[in-house]
Amino acid sequence: MIVQRIVEAYVPDKIILYGSYAYGMPRPDSDFDLLILKETTEPPRDRRFAVRKAIWPLPTTIPVEPLVVTESELARRLEIGDQYFQEIVSRGRTVYDRQGLARSRRMVRSRRPRLRSRRSASQRP
What we know:
Order of helices and strands: HEEHEHHEH
Number of domains: 1
CATH class: Alpha Beta
């Protein structure tokens, strides 16, 4: 529900859940840690505010900690060996990937003609 709301209102490229919920070890005081990738020129503070605004009306008792970065910012952090981001990328769980969705939709569309032709062939006497 949280991810869906962020996707609808903020339109990110990718969302990665990391931290205790992603690693299967949440505690009562745990929050949802989300790395959100989006190409934007907004300052980091405004990005975070936009995500919080998108999820604000949702009835959740678990706090959400969004970290919004661009692809180039993430690449730069990984390039300099930032262990925090390395752990997110290596251990986090991708919960939304716009390119992955687009790829899946293209695959389904490209297979439809073949599926139709197989069905018609199997229905022939």
